[in-house]
Amino acid sequence: MANGLHSGAGGAVGERWARTDARAKVRGELRYAADQPLRPCLDVVLHRATRPHALLESVDVEDALAVDGVVAVVTGAQLYERFGDALMTGPAFSDQPCLAVGKVRYVGEPVAAVIARGLAPARAAAERVLVDYAELDAVHDVDAAAAGGPYVHEELRPSIIFGDLKHLRGKRDTNVNYEFNLRRGDVAAAESEALERGGATVREEFWCPPTHHVPIELPFTAAWRDGDRLEILSTTQTPSYVRQSVADLLGIPLNAVRVRSAPLGGSFGAKMYDRLEPLAAALAWSQKLPVRIVANREEAFLLTTRHGVAVTSSMTADAEGRIVASSADVRYDTGAYADVGPRITGKSGMVAAGPYRVDNVKVRSRCVYTNKPSAGPFRGFGVPQVTWSHESLADELARECGIDPAEFRRRNLLREGDVSAVGTPIHSADFLGCLDAVTEAVGWNTPLQREQGRLRRGRGVAVGLKAVLTPTISNAVLQLNQDSSATLLISTVDMGQGSDTIMAQIAAEALCLGEGQVRVVTADTDVTPYDTITAGSRSTYHTGNAVRRAAEAMRDKLVGLAAERFGVPATDVKLTADGLVSAQTQQRVSIPELLHGHFGARGTTLTTEANFTTSWVPYDHETGQSERVTEHWFAGAVAAQLTVDTETGRVHIEHLAVAGDVGRAINPTLVEQQLTGAAIMGVGHALFDQLVFDEGQIVNGTLLDYQLPSVLDLPDKITPIIVESPHRTGPYGAKGVGETTIIPLAPAIANAVRDAIGIRFARLPLTPERILTALAAQETHK
Fold first, then answer.
1. Using CA of residue 625, residue 627, residue 630, residue 633, what is the dihedral sign?
2. How far apart are CA 777 and CA 771, in angstroms?
3. Sequence-distant (≥ 6) Cβ neighbours of residue 160 within 8 angstroms
């Protein structure tokens, strides 16, 4: 590339290197957190609330303590007496105790912790904890909660982590803990003018239900004291955050807390921030006992969910099919505790108008407490829910205007240099390229056999837009060994996305190293440097830039040493795959020879470190506008061809084409796998996934009842397509990819169903029952 974004001497970037953990995974040799060797730990089992909203009149633990093998039974009141308000944790609001204090706010909230020698006595004792409740009115509907009481929390308690929420401190009598507003132009005036001149408007009320992440690996945390230090081994995406959170809770220095992670068996957001860690830390510290907490599958459903979201939205186009106005009223059901809901509310609200050029936008996005399990981050960070709205509207508006849905989008999509609705310019987000790639893959313009007996066939398309998490911080430390192998220290957690492989390739590219020569150290806060978070598809860009800088600093060190050895200027020396060479004298030296000669010993190391920090311009609280709200954008598109069985209501996907602009594919195989994996998860959200509640109680919180797509439900054909629009500041032009194709997946399928049977669905998932009911209503109205 002329701009140098594809330049690199090592030949590692762009190669299909095998995953660094592939062999260990397929052989069953990879050790996850629960497989790690530990000192003997006592087991912790929780007694959980049976009421959605109630005062704790008393918690009687005498019978539980009498069970043989029980060491202690701890209540929230006891922990609060020891730790005070520090017991209240959370990334956005300090609103969640690890054991209920004073009252419970959802069915399943931990009330007491039994510590015992073995799971059997711990479970038996947990059942013997007796709780007297004084029931309070509960609120389960997000709109009822937004409108008024009963109130889940007496007042808002912003944490110190998100400084932009401090103005909410002490606010009372509300379930709305955060509101984001986006204002641009005049929606009402633009809509009125367009309609007067032959344009069209569509409106709808959309709903995405709460869902669960269902990673294969269950949550696990072990904690123990080592003198005046606390050590934690946990299934976490955020070891640096957990260390800070636990240090704040216990009132000890950061260097007195060690948090180790391990390769994760999936997460998708379920293991972000602090889940089990505050409780494990509080118990280990206060009781001076080594403890471990292993959540079973039913408990995992209670730890966190994806937000259920209601969206009331409209979209207007003029007579030429140009979108002129877009509005959305978005309500996020964040459950009993805010978690990172306010950030999700803002990040999704800013893209609620979609990836389109539109001058008049009005978005109101609110985060609302209800008496349900806490909702938190999930692959896509709330954006799939608003994309469900704007891409369904765009499709329907195209039909109202008499324009092909793909052509309608081409006419309106943002291009390079355009300014998005939130006020930040578009760079390295090739929406048009993604759209064209997926529509071509499914043969969009070829004739379609629409009826085949009881089957009705249709095609649909959708486009997605998301901002990356900004601002964040990543650090990297690189050790180059005398034998030219390297050890890379980063706190990015590999949870199946292949980040260890990607980071190794980035480092290898700058140092001209080969496959297998760079090893990535598993996150350990005593060893690996600070990283904000492994989430939001940020790691390739943010940690990747830190790794590239560290590797380039190492290259410069080697060049300097070689220049001294050769007696030439550093500008005359070049690092190649065969070592370092002087252009002037043609002298050559390998890395092992160079380091041995410099140090005079074998087994020595050179060390470099680097930081990469992004910045933003906080959005205006009144208008939501910011000239730099994100470091970069994600762009993706999905096209689907499917059939609907009019007798069973079953949707069968014949071909699913998914495309993402990844800037530059560091490892094309891993990118294709990410595009495909996100698409399959999106199929689940479109057709299967939903948590069902009855007065706050999850009624399908087991894998016997929670419906997921099986191998028989997968598309006949999935085509992942890599689009490369290099980012000017990405590592070798790269960006993230993990969330890109889940964002527009559900509306693409719904748009294809609309094409097949002529029915617009506004609620997910598109279950056979829902489709059959709609088909019956369609017949009735004929």
1. positive
2. 10
3. none
Structure tokens of 498? 């292949």
Q: Are 77 and 55 in contact (CB under 8 A)?
A: no
pLDDT above 50 for 202: yes
Q: How many CA atoms lie within 13 A of 662 on its CB side?
A: 29
Closest by Cα among 737, 281, 292 to 539? 737
How do beta strands 486-489 and 518-521 pair? parallel
Q: How far apart are CA 463 and CA 745, in angstroms?
A: 8
What digits encode the pLDDT tens for the residues 699-716? 999 999 999 999 999 999
pLDDT above 70: residue 4: no
Structure tokens at 455: 């089957």
Taking residues 489-516, report their average pLDDT: 95
**Arithmetic mean of pLDDT over the chain:** 96
Q: Are 264 and 493 in contact (CB under 8 A)?
A: yes
Cis peptide before 471 (omega within 30 of 0): yes
Q: Is residue 525 within 8 Å of 239, Cβ to Cβ?
A: yes
Q: Pull the structure tokens for residue 622.
A: 């009144």
Residue type, 325: A
Cα three-residue angle 391-393-397, rounded to 5 degrees: 120
- The residues, ordered by sequence, that sit 6+ positions from 222 with a Cβ below 8 Å of its Cβ are 33, 38, 41, 232, 233, 234, 280, 290, 291, 292, 293
Q: What is the DSSP string of 230-261?
A: EEEEE--S-HHHHHHHHHHHHT--GGGEEEE-
| CA–centroid distance for 34 within its chain | 23
User: How is residue 448 annotated by DSSP?
Assistant: -
pTM over 0.85: yes
